[in-house]
Input
Amino acid sequence: MTRKSHETSFFRTEMLPPKPPPPATTGVLGWMRKHLFSDWLNTILTFIGIYIIWLIVSSFVQFALIDAVWSGADRKACLPHDGIEVGACWAFVHAKFNQFMYGFYPRALQWRVNLTYIVGILLLVPMLIPKLPYKRLNGILLLVVFPIFAYLMLYGAPSLGLDKVETTKWGGLLLTLVIAITGIVTSLPLGVLLALGRQSKMPIVRLVSVIFIEFWRGVPLITVLFMSSVMLPLFLPEGVTLDKVVRPLVGVALFSAAYMAEVVRGGLQAIPKGQYEGAMALGLSYWQMMRFIILPQALKLVIPGIVNTFIGLFKDTSLVSIIGLMDLLGIVQSSLADAKWATPTTAPTAYLFLAMIYWTFCFSMSRYSIFMENLLHTGHKR
Amino acid sequence: MNTSPAKKLEISDEVAIEISNMNKWYGDFHVLRDINLTVYKGERIVICGPSGSGKSTMIRCINRLEEHQAGKIIVDGVELTEDVKKIEGIRKEVGMVFQHFNLFPHLTVLQNCTLAPIWVKHMPKAEAEDIAMHYLEKVKIPEQANKYPGQLSGGQQQRVAIARSLCMAPKIMLFDEPTSALDPEMIKEVLDVMVDLAETGMTMLVVTHEMGFARKVANRVIFMDAGQIVEQNEPEEFFTNPKSDRTKLFLSQILH
Output
């Protein structure tokens, strides 16, 4: 083997300097050639795909935009005329828009709802932008002061000159947001406590947490809602009544807290034992260790799961329409019974509108969670 | 290796740690058997032994990362019991460096170092940061203060871990195989920091297989096997003239 010595013996006189990586793509055309038209089979599949997309998108655009009716006073505008089919009946949504947003909240007092929205957004947006300062103050305002403000504004306080608006008059997007946001805000801290409780060394705490979680997870949300509206009043002492909106609201919050607890527990289990030991060895107390070391890492790991639960909760609020609450879904469905607007396209338009609103909220949450995940990433990206 | 100045450091006759008749079981398995050990202030003790001999478990009992079931452990005059407040008090005084560093990946190097002083010792943030920078300079990485642990090499991470412990101004430092997870090139940088620390008179208990370090720094070497202290002696004597057959066998295997 004469070649052996030649190949095994090598030494470098100069170390190589780092070089930039090769260009990843060669423009749009290069990308398309590589991914869409690499061979004849791929090319055929690409064209079939484009055709299917075209079929769906074009008929959707035809219905929602081109053939749509944008204005009109009643059903006549949306009926097929001269034998021509009509698309989406946006005139209907326009006519009912106020109801969809506020339910039967008195028109003259709707400024209070709007003011609540504005204050809420003004407090929420700076909270969501990580770069802005005063997070602690902002958090207190958002989580402590704002709920009180919102309660006074929405429900009213005669002593402050704000007329009472019974919750039975609340409806539409307002009610959906009230239930969803209360549920979201209470389920996360409650879920964290339950998850910690389930891992606690104290047997009673652990038992109570396990029973709570397993009870709420084992029951369908509809059952919870029916029980809260039908059964709960039977068990309450005479004279005590719980508000018709508060009951399902508590049900939704506790229900999602149980799911949240299991999501958070998944995160806790992914934290290596060394992190606990490192924190303990420094003399941190249990709550300090959880607050500064374990929970920040565990919650970051399960952001997708947390947001999943939030989104699920947001959409599940629509179930309260079954127990007679006029949330967004409930009010849209009941408005479909209006004979003044009975046309073939009223219902599809209404549901399309409904879907768009739900989608907007859920998609925003999803995008924000992805943004947070990237922001919280330390160390090297894979 | 020659005797270094570190050896001539004074050892006080004050007791730092007193372990008497300590026993521990994992289920039915008797991991630590009748451990008796007195550590004086300023002592640098190296603990070695085959894996599973209980050396890590023993030093982890000193800050109660592990619980002992029988016997007594008195650290800095306080006996370790179930009392959480006492345990937290002892952990304030006892620093620990781990094999896998256990830095907090979501905090910067500086935040890793200031967290405990701020929250456990209620130190003002600016003062904690000054102290942290002081110790980061001691371990020769002040320039990494604002990086995250995941951006550092293993050796750098371990040096941060040492600085993090020192920021609490501990009276005793425990090292649990601090170089076992490191590449050969990085072992030296960590050991150098530990040698520097020994020269400040810190009481140190070091579980390690770095026999060079033991010769250079330790004033006592303890050999453990099967959950017991088999032999202890001054390093020269320990390495050149081991008494027990078990020690001789162990040394012959690790010193080639």
User: Anything to note?
Assistant: Residues 92-105+165-376 of chain A form a domain with the MetI-like fold fold (CATH 1.10.3720.10).
